[in-house]
Amino acid sequence: MLRAALLLGAFGALIAGGTAFADPAHDMAATKPAKTLRWLDPQAFAPERVLPEPPVIGSIEERAEMDEVLAFAKIVAPERHAAAAADGEDETPRAFNAVVGRDLTKLPATAHLLDEIEDEIEVVADVAKRHFRRARPYTVDPALAHCGSGSAGGKGGDRSYPSGHATFGWSMAWVLSDLIPERRAAIFARAADYGYSREICAVHFASDVEAGHLLGVLAAKALLADPRLAPDIAAARAELSKP
Predict the structure, then answer these.
(1) What's the rounded Cα separation, in Å, for the pair 60 and 142?
(2) Which of 219, 220, 239 is nearest to 231 (CA)?
(3) DSSP code, position 25
(4) Is the CB of residue 134 less than 8 Å from the CB of residue 54?
(5) For residues 22 and 216, what is the distance between their CA atoms, to the nearest angstrom?
(6) Residue 56 and residue 79: Cα distance in Å, rounded?
(7) pLDDT tens digits for range 88-109
(8) DSSP states along 134-190
(9) CA gap 59, 62 in Å, rounded
(10) Alpha-carbon span 54 to 135, nearest angstrom
């Protein structure tokens, strides 16, 4: 897929160029003032630098993505749709409890690190959403059935790109796979499924989820490499190594 190739190209270019870190200085509603990044360099993570533009309104690519969303309503089993709706209501590290075999909320050092990561990811995704302001599937087609209470004319209807859930899911997956490498395959599979849920729910297009994947991994890689977070990362790693 062309957009997937563009995203992978952007991913490779940013990694090759390196990522700078900023000096330290949850609600993502579009009407609230944007929070600021604490760890990541805002310039390095400027949306126009790390992500390609989403498909143009009315383009062949956008139509193909909408057709894909419409098809999900016909081919997805009710059980999978219910699971997708549940994923939409759980944008927390708990979404990975089953695949890591632990309750991440009950591990203090791990929970602290993941909270720091989550706070940063929320900001970086919010900045990108504010920049691109892409209409969600149900905004493009107000008759489209979808998860949640969003409406075409309501708040968040223009916050489709990138997917915040996919950005969150892949950032958590990248960090957890670094901390628990023996569970990497299951963690990545869960992140992919978590992102796919957003398409099933008709709240995001495929390229929104792909962009979230890219942004989440880029941010997580940078945060894991930040020496200021090294003590917290070490504490979480030690905690997770215990039976």
Answers:
(1) 19
(2) 239
(3) -
(4) yes
(5) 18
(6) 33
(7) 999 999 999 999 999 999 999 9
(8) PPPHHHHSTT---SSS--TTSTTTT--SS-HHHHHHHHHHHHHHHHSGGGHHHHHHH
(9) 5
(10) 10
Cβ neighbours of 188 (radius 10 Å): 16
> Smallest Cα–Cα separation from 211: which of 172, 161, 168?
161
For residue 36, what pLDDT is reported?
87
Do 123 and 37 form a contact (C-beta atoms < 8 A)? yes
> 230-241 and 108-132 helices cross at what angle (nearest 10)?
130
Q: How many CB atoms lie within 10 A of CB 170?
A: 27
- C-alpha 232/C-alpha 178 separation (Å) is 13
**Model confidence at 4: pLDDT above 60:** no
Determine phi and psi for 89, rounding to 5 degrees: -95, 0
Token code pair at residue 22: 């900023």
Q: What is the pLDDT of residues 32-63, one digit of tens each?
A: 555 789 999 999 999 999 999 999 989 999 99
Q: Within a 10 A sphere around the Cβ of 35, how many other Cβ atoms?
A: 15
- Domains of the chain, start order: 2-16+38-241 (1.20.144.10)
Closest-CA residue to 119 (of 51, 43, 38, 191): 38
Q: What are phi and psi of 140, to 5 degrees?
A: -65, -40
Spatial distance between the Cα atoms of 150 and 91, rounded to a whole number of angstroms: 16
What's the Cα-to-Cα distance from 92 to each of 8, 75, 150, 199, rounded to whole Å?
A: 26, 28, 20, 19
CB atoms within 10 A of CB 85: 15
Interhelix angle 164-179/184-200, rounded to 10 degrees, is: 170
Number of helices and strands (H, E) in the chain? 11, 0
Model pTM?
0.85
